TrEMBL record:
GO terms of molecular function: hydrolase activity, hydrolyzing O-glycosyl compounds
Name of the protein: Glucanase
GO BP term, pick one: cellulose catabolic process
Active site: D203, D251
PANTHER family tied to this protein: GLUCANASE, PTHR34876
EC numbers for this chain: 3.2.1.-
Coiled-coil features, chain-numbered ranges: none
Domain of life the protein comes from: Eukaryota
Keyword entries, A-Z: Carbohydrate metabolism, Cellulose degradation, Glycosidase, Hydrolase, Polysaccharide degradation
Record InterPro entries: Beta_cellobiohydrolase, Beta_cellobiohydrolase_sf, Glyco_hydro_6_CS
UniProt record similarity statement: Belongs to the glycosyl hydrolase family 6.
Length: 450
């Protein structure tokens, strides 16, 4: 405990004796070392081309669902790799703090289970950057040069590309070419991020983004051909020089968990499972990491939905192994194109009855069920529209929410979501933190000139 003496002293202040404190603290650390198997390949950025705050609604080809409304094609980015820790008592909180220090007690994951983002640069999608020129023009015409400059910053932030219809498959070749060019210029390994979204009779509960394939027109077999074409594009000579992250089929498996009372969802359930398993099996490519979509905390995070969701994800993965033995996935993507904050500053009233009241707590709620079912507990958490809290009055509001803002930027930081990092060892002077204490003093400090 010597290297963490400051936290050890804090534990003593809980009123326990020295021997008892040391014993319980070590026990808590041991418990966490067994339970901290969750790696958050966390997320940022579903930059929404929606009609708020100077972002005119797009009229592009690829229409995709945000809850019960249709938007133009969207892109997601990534906040990556946090160790996960959920304290359940004051002493346990101290142990969590030890775990979450930059000099963490727990070892990093082995290479075979490595976060696919580590050591790579997620690609900043040129197609999305081009669309943002309209937003820059909007601000410039209104002489809002600061917002225009901030939008240029958005152009440089990594984004996902959506492949949501057959005619968008050729765009993969262009994305690969652009990413390879960036890799050559920067001499940094590029990671290309893609969302695959085209199951037959998709969006079964809302009908906002029905898609091109339908079960009454051989849609499942057409979808399998669609996946085969994507797999071919990801195995070209050029593509093998890059790394990829794929998110499969937003909302689809979530509808199986909760919406089988909707006739279209009940009719599509088996095709959703078979199609997703097929996609997993056929996209087993060495430089590709796969994440299934797991909706968000306001949907599948309710206690009664957690175990059925984990069971379904594991079942789909096992079915993929009947096609391609030893098929694997990296984990789950959550909050795709939604507004839930990763770590809410305060709990919003409409979340009162849920233990998954933000995405941090959703991960905490779902992870034990995933471990029980044998599904990997690694997460991408979309924060692209989650920069502002208190902009809704219920979870059901998820279409172009007014006053939304971009959220957390992509990062591989493995510290606590509320911690100031990097930080020195306990007992050392932490000047960056003092700078923040001065700047954020409330009420403000009065100046002393001499």
């Amino acid at each position: 405990m010597k290297r963490h003496s400051g936290l050890y002293k804090a534990a003593l202040q809980l009123g326990l004796g020295q021997h008892r404190t040391r014993h319980l603290l070590l026990r808590a650390l041991h418990d966490i070392s067994r339970r901290v198997k969750v790696i958050l390949d966390l997320t940022n950025i579903a930059y929404p081309p929606s009609s708020f705050r100077g972002f005119p609604a797009e009229r592009g080809e690829n229409k995709v669902k945000v809850g019960r409304c249709t938007l133009g094609d969207r892109y997601k980015g990534i906040l990556l790799a946090r160790q996960f820790c959920a304290p359940s008592s004051p002493l346990h909180a101290v142990a969590c703090a030890l775990v979450l220090l930059p000099t963490a007690v727990l070892s990093a994951p082995q290479a075979a289970d490595a976060n696919p983002y580590l050591g790579k640069v997620p690609f900043a999608n040129k197609g999305y950057a081009k669309k943002l020129e309209e937003t820059i023009s909007y601000f410039t015409k209104r002489r809002d040069l600061l917002s225009a400059a901030r939008t240029r910053t958005v152009q440089k932030i990594p984004t996902f590309a959506w492949v949501s219809e057959s005619q968008s498959i050729p765009s993969i070749k262009e994305l690969v070419s652009d990413a390879l060019r960036a890799q050559t210029l920067t001499r940094k390994k590029q990671l290309l991020q893609i969302v695959v979204y085209n199951l037959p009779d998709r969006d079964c509960s809302a009908k906002a983004s029905d898609g091109e394939f339908h079960l009454d027109d051989d849609g499942l077999n057409k979808y399998k051909g669609f996946i085969d074409s994507i797999a071919a594009e990801l195995q070209t000579v050029a593509a093998k020089k890059l790394s990829f992250v794929l998110i499969l089929e937003p909302d689809s498996l979530g509808n199986i968990v909760t919406n089988l009372n909707v006739p279209k969802c009940a009719g599509a359930a088996s095709a959703y499972k078979e199609g997703t398993s097929y996609a997993i099996a056929k996209l087993q490519i060495p430089n590709v990491a796969i994440y299934l979509d797991a909706a968000h905390g306001g949907w599948l995070g309710w206690d009664d939905n957690l175990a059925p969701s984990a069971t379904l994800f594991a079942e789909v993965l096992e079915d993929a192994k009947t096609i391609t033995p030893n098929a694997t996935v990296r984990g789950l993507a959550i909050n795709v194109s939604n507004y839930n904050q990763y770590a809410s500053v305060v709990r919003e009233n409409f979340t009162e009855w849920s233990n998954s009241w933000d995405e941090f707590h959703y991960v905490n709620s779902l992870a034990p069920h995933l471990e029980t079912s044998g599904y990997p507990a690694h997460f991408i958490v979309d924060q692209g529209r989650a920069g502002q809290g208190a902009i809704r009055t219920e979870w059901g509001q998820w279409c172009n929410i007014r006053n939304a803002g971009f959220g957390i930027r992509p990062t591989t930081d493995q510290a606590s979501p509320v911690a100031h990092v990097p930080a020195p060892e306990a007992g050392s002077w932490f000047n960056d933190y003092v700078v923040n204490l001065v700047k954020k003093a409330n009420p403000p400090l009065s100046p002393t000139l001499f």
